[in-house]
Structures are given as C-alpha cells and as structure tokens.
C-alpha cells in the first residue's frame, strides 16, 4: 500500500504565479483534506473533498481552490501567489463514515514563494 | 472558533518520561488526536481519544478529560528518535478528518 502520495515534493514559485499541487489518497480512501503548515505552526485546515465536491472550507481566500477526480485523487490550486503562501502543504485522506478513523497524511509539498 | 494550547518546547533526558499537556476550547468535539512530526516530514498518528480516560500504546499513553478540555501525551523510556514535534489536534466534526491543530510541542531528547 503506497499510502498517501503528494507531488511535487518541493516547489519554488514567484509572487503572482499560480501553482497546482497533487494528492493521491491511500488505497480505499474516498475523502481528501488539504492543510497548510507554516514554519513553526500546526497545520491549518484549507478544505475537504468528498464525492468530487468541496464540502467544508477553512478560513482561506478564494485564491485557494481545489478539485477531486473520480478516482478520489485531488488537486490544490493557489492563484496570485503571495510570499505568505510559503508553507508545507499536506494532504490527508480518510474513509467517509469511519468515525474512529485516523487521517493519514502525505509527506507534503514544500512551497517556497520568492 | 477553535483554541488549542500546548507548550512550545520541552527537553528531557534519554530514558526519562515527558508529559505534554494540551488544553482546548472548541465548537464541538468528536475526539482528540496526537501526531508526531519530525522536521520536514508529514505528521504520523500516535493516538486517539474520544472518551475520558487513559489510552496506552506501548511507550506512548494519552489521557483525555472532556469536562476540563484537557489532554496529555505521556512518552516513557525516551529515546533519541523521539526528538520531534508533537501535535495535539481536535476533531470537531461532523466530518471524519477536519482537524484543528495546536502549534505543536518540540521535544528534545538529550543523552
């Protein structure tokens, strides 16, 4: 089982550019959540996807958007990048309805905006 | 809103015991998680409490008091590899994995 996989591992972008991050959930999982972790902070919830729809969103601007595909994989898009968007972006997958289920995290994408 | 507090740093000696406290005030509560995160890596699951009391898993134990909004993670027989950040996270539901995290406690284990 490959677990949760994210790509790319590292990325450097310029202010104002757009970026797309990708996530493949753990086999059998159907729910994907995205988190942003700034240096020295805990992860902050961005949004969650289930059945190809965004069903819950944290306190992030519309510059952050996403998508879930029929195979449950997901993308996170960030437009008009700001220096403050530099962070580790984590994808977590789980199985809907499993109340005691843990969320499995991918290794993350380290985004640096210069 | 969510407010989750844990100490920033703790230092302990190899072989010793360390207790990391976490207090929370959240809108809704469906369980409390502890994750371990080594520098530059993803968080890995350590424990989960949904009912009051102590959950023991090998060298790691976690305690929850819902009435006090309080949890702790106990690390016994510390090893050098336990040097990491420990994240307290509350699941406030209704969905499975929307987690609100504390800022993390960096534990340094010294020889």
Describe this structure in words.
The complex is a heterodimer of chains A (114) and B (111). Chain A is globular. Chain A is mostly beta strands and 114 residues long. In chain A, the strands form 2 sheets. In chain A, strands 2, 4, 5, 6, 9, 10 and 11 form a 7-stranded mixed β-sheet that branches. Chain A has strands at residues 5-7, 10-13, 19-24, 31-37, 44-50, 53-57, 64-68, 74-78, 87-94, 104-105, 109-113. Chain A starts with a strand and ends with a strand. Chain B is built from no helices and 11 strands. Chain B is mainly beta and 111 residues long. Chain B is globular and about 40 Å long. Chain A binds chain B through residues 4, 31, 33, 35, 40-45, 48, 50, 55-56, 90, 92-108, 110, and chain B through 4, 30-31, 33, 35, 40-45, 48, 50, 87, 89, 95-104.
List unreliable stretches of 5+ residues of chain A: none
How big a fraction of the residues of chain A is strand?
over 45%
Instruction: Specify the biggest β-sheet of chain B.
Output: 6 strands, mixed
Oligomer: heterodimer
Provide tags for this entry:
heterodimer, A: 114 residues, mainly beta, seven-stranded mixed β-sheet, four-stranded antiparallel β-sheet, 11 strands, globular, B: 111 residues, six-stranded mixed β-sheet, five-stranded antiparallel β-sheet, 0% helix, 56% strand
TL;DR of this structure?
The complex is a heterodimer of chains A (114) and B (111). Chain A is mainly β and 114 residues long.
What is the secondary structure topology, with strand pairs?
The complex is a heterodimer of chains A (114) and B (111).
Chain A: E1 5-7, E2 10-13, E3 19-24, E4 31-37, E5 44-50, E6 53-57, E7 64-68, E8 74-78, E9 87-94, E10 104-105, E11 109-113
Parallel strand pairs in A: 2-11
Antiparallel strand pairs in A: 1-3, 3-8, 4-5, 4-9, 5-6, 7-8, 9-10, 9-11
Chain B: E1 3-5, E2 9-13, E3 18-25, E4 32-37, E5 44-49, E6 53-57, E7 60-65, E8 70-75, E9 84-91, E10 99-101, E11 105-110
């Amino acid at each position: 089982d490959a677990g949760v996989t994210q790509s790319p591992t590292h990325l450097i972008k310029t202010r104002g550019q757009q970026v797309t991050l990708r996530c493949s959930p753990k086999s059998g999982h159907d729910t994907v959540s995205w988190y942003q972790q700034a240096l020295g902070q805990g992860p902050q919830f961005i949004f969650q996807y289930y059945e190809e729809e965004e069903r819950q969103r944290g306190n992030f601007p519309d510059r952050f958007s996403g998508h879930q595909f029929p195979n449950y994989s997901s993308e996170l898009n960030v437009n008009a990048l700001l220096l403050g968007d530099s962070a580790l972006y984590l994808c977590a997958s789980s199985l809907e309805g499993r109340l005691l289920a843990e969320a499995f995290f991918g290794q993350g994408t380290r985004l640096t905006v210069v | 809103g969510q407010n989750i507090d844990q100490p920033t740093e703790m230092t302990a000696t190899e072989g010793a015991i360390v207790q990391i406290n976490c207090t929370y005030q959240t809108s809704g509560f469906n369980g409390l998680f502890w994750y371990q995160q080594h520098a530059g890596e993803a968080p890995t699951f350590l424990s989960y409490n949904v009912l009051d009391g102590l959950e023991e898993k090998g060298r790691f134990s976690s305690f929850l008091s819902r009435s006090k909004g309080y949890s702790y993670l106990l690390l016994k027989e510390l090893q050098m590899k336990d040097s990491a950040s420990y994240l307290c996270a509350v699941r406030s539901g209704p969905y499975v994995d929307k987690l609100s995290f504390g800022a993390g406690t960096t534990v340094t284990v010294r020889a």
